Amino acid sequence: MKAHALVLAGALACGAAAWAPPALAVMDPAQAQADVDAAMRAHAYTFCRAPHEPLSGDALALCPHASSIPDCSGYAAACAKMTTPPSWSLPSWWGMFALPPFLGVLFQVLMWLVVAALVLAILVPVVAAIVRYRRRDDAKAKKEEKPSAAAPERLAELVASSDEEALLARADELAARGEYGAALQLYLAAGLRALDKRGAVRIARDRTNGEYVRACADAQAKPALREIVREVDQVQFGGQPATREAASRAAQRAMAIVKAVPLAILVVLLPLVLGCSGAASLKPRVAGDDPAGGELLRDVLRAQGVTAKDLDSSLATMPLPAAGELTPAVIVDVEQTSIDDDTRAHLASWVDAGGVLVLAGSPTQWPKEFGASYAWATGPRKITARRLLARAVEAEPGEEDDGDDDSESAIYARTEEHGVLATDRGLKFKGPSENIAWFDDKTTYAAVVAYGKGRVLCMASDELLTNAGIAHPGNAAALVAILAATSRSDVRIADPEDGVSPPSTPIAALLRAGLGMGLLHAVPFILVLFVGAGTRLSRPRPSPPPRRRAFAEHVAAVGALYARTHNGAHALAAYARFADERLRARMPRGSTDVGGFLASRAGMPLDVSQRLWARAMQAKAGAPPLGDELSVLRELSVVYAAAMQQER
Amino acid sequence: MDPSQFQQTFERIKQQMARVIVGQEQLVDGVLVGALAKGHILVEGAPGLGKTLVARTLAVVSGCAFKRIQFTPDLMPSDITGSSVYSRETGKFTFVPGPIFAQLLLADEINRAPAKTQSALLEAMQDHQVTVDGTSRPLPAPFVVVATQNPVESQGTYPLPEAQLDRFLFKLTVDDPPPEVERTIVRHHADGFDPTDLSALQAATSPQEIAAMQQHAQGVRVDDAVVTYVVEMVRRTRDDKAIELGASPRASIALVRAAQVIAASEGRTFVTPDDVKPMVAPVLRHRVMLHPDAQLQGITADERIDEIVKAVPVPRLAA
What we know:
The complex is a heterodimer.
Chain A: H1 2-14, E1 18-19, H2 29-43, H3 57-61, H4 73-83, H5 102-145, H6 154-161, H7 164-177, H8 180-198, H9 209-215, H10 222-236, H11 244-258, H12 263-275, H13 295-303, E2 307-310, E3 329-333, H14 341-352, E4 356-360, E5 372-376, E6 382-394, E7 407-420, E8 425-429, E9 434-439, E10 444-451, E11 454-459, H15 467-471, H16 475-483, E12 490-493, H17 506-512, H18 516-538, H19 551-564, H20 568-586, H21 594-602, H22 606-618, H23 629-647
Parallel strand pairs in A: 2-12, 3-4, 3-12, 4-11
Antiparallel strand pairs in A: 1-6, 5-8, 6-7, 6-9, 9-10, 10-11
Helix pairs in contact in A: 2-13, 2-16, 7-8, 7-11, 8-10, 8-11, 9-10, 10-11, 12-18, 20-22, 20-23, 21-22, 21-23, 22-23
Chain B: H1 3-18, H2 25-36, E1 41-45, H3 51-62, E2 66-70, H4 77-81, E3 82-87, E4 92-97, E5 104-108, H5 115-118, H6 122-127, E6 129-132, E7 135-138, E8 144-149, H7 162-167, E9 170-174, H8 179-190, H9 207-218, H10 224-239, E10 243-245, H11 249-265, H12 273-284, E11 289-290, H13 292-296, H14 301-311
Parallel strand pairs in B: 1-8, 1-9, 2-5, 5-8
Antiparallel strand pairs in B: 3-4, 6-7, 10-11
Helix pairs in contact in B: 1-2, 2-3, 9-11, 10-11, 11-12, 12-14
């Protein structure tokens, strides 16, 4: 050992060995506590005074620090509230009345049913009101566009502005008052409205009751609708009196139609509502109110002169370091950032290529290549950390420095830092590791593992990265001493969402977001919705009979033929004869001056009109073209149209 | 006659006719409804679609006296109505009735005769009597004219004048049958069916019963709302811009009468708008004259009528 130190000292003195740059010379554990106090004052973090309640599981695990942190009575009180058993206790015989476990699930389902009912109770009136409002607008528009129609009757207005439930209720009222005729009408209207909503019929003002029955796509509702129509027709057109029995029969059938809500939709909707459960606290979170948060870590690192930023990318897509590249160290708290297999593999490759990684939390979540596993400390939960000052890279004797096979030596500060933890979890490694922090029983708490060209700084827990853990007196210094082992002044901190590789498909993204169950429920729901709406839209409608070719199309086609054959003279002659025949039919009896008639009707100068007409009449089929045929034809057609328009 | 008896007889006639007529249900229904509504029926369609066969079958099934007149360009009115012939034995003119003196008259290819000859039917169709040499002679009851005509675009045809057209309750159009129906028709003939020999058919009713059915149909109740509905549709044909000449009040009457038969055929004693609607096109299509510009644009009477039907709201909520 002594010889090795001498060799190292000699190398330092004569420069025979290459030195890694003392990148973390700025990190000073002695200043760490002062930095923490300054950050607490500057940002007024509330995790001590008024932590976010109820405390999360992580924050609860950090409760042993609460009493040791100055001015942290709020956190301590919250911990006490959470950990103290209730002052009262149930008598021993109470166990007789303990509920079976399945009742919990049952009550949960009932709870969600109540929630769903509440949502529906809110939504249904809103949607109904919107629909009613729109229908009222439609009815108003129809009324405005056809003022000659008969004045809308009271019932018609009611039918136009109410949904089926309201119509049923109104019909019941009328029946109770003895107005059976009106009640029958409303029962029919309610049935039709319900069927229209389901897409089984399409309500239109030109449709007869018989057409509704024949077109009803709901086979189960068809007989009931037929019965109602029969009752209504007998009263309305058959002159028979409306009786209570008839109204009662119609009411039963209308009720059967209206209340037949598609159960399939409910069946699909319910699990959708139940499947998309999620707990959300009503109290909004504020930065720095969580004892298990990470705000202090960033503040302390920055105060230490380290560039600490969020990773802002996925751990699985970090570019591999190039040879000799000094990439930032990446801190990953696997308790907060879950990493998947792809990410684990990429992290191993990244470190192998020269990256420096800080892993905190459960080693079972780390890449297995690093060979770490849990070990448990037996003594007090105090750790001692040593600060790395520099690493010396010694060249092998007699060889040039190629940077590959050189051995390294670490130089640590003489002073050691001491921290207190809430956990007794330590680490052990399959391969060689370099202890950075350890419990009093020498169980490793933090260590550096060399892997390929890079290093991994492993920490058995993440509490030194949390607000409460850092705020505990002495822990900040221990943390700074541990992180000095990264030999980096640039650090990236992974966010919780950085641990998973980017989804390859949108569906994979939804599944990862925990919406898989919701998606599964949404698919049949959409299918049902699609079928429900699609059935209505896809119902065959009578297609209009094929029309004959429009006259305008015929003229255009013939004109195109003339143009292709360069026979404008024929076109002009034909059009002139057509116009001549039509115009003479409208000219005053005895008049023969077509040009003058055109001029008077089209409002154009007489000489121009006569010249145009004379030219048109000169045109003969087969005559050699003069070149002006199409322009004359176009001009004549405009004048002719103007004259005929005037005639009308 | 009670409603159920009417319904049963109606169905019986249809069943008998269906033994001969394949795939022309609408034509059969139309002719039958027209006859029971005391109307005359004009059937238009290309040759060979079974128009004549329908009329002959109806005559056999109904037991009515049947006569057929083949209209030709040289046909004279007296060839239809009959004429007074001088008898040398008695020294007097004796009236020899023409073929019009029948209960079911088939006027085949009516538009091949000129307007003068066509008009010989006017009095008979309207007043059910014929006046020859100043003497009016009643026609037997029931009296139904089933006229067939080829489309007016065919060569050698004379369009029927409006007054003549208005006398027809219905104008039914016959289209080419779909392939499967045509196969059935051919198979029917290949199996020995002879359209000239309808002796296998049985009379499903009698002229007296037909007359009774006509009387019954006229007694079917028509509510004011239905009358308003009918009148509104007919009036709209007069306001339609694409229609130069709309339908007359006779069309409204015809529409109601046809609807009454439809209602009676379903065993009802009252007419609903559902009975009216399918009768609108057959009643109106020959009574409206399209504007020439609309014709040039390819608009048809049926299309305009369809639009009108869609535009008129069905009577509802009249409580």
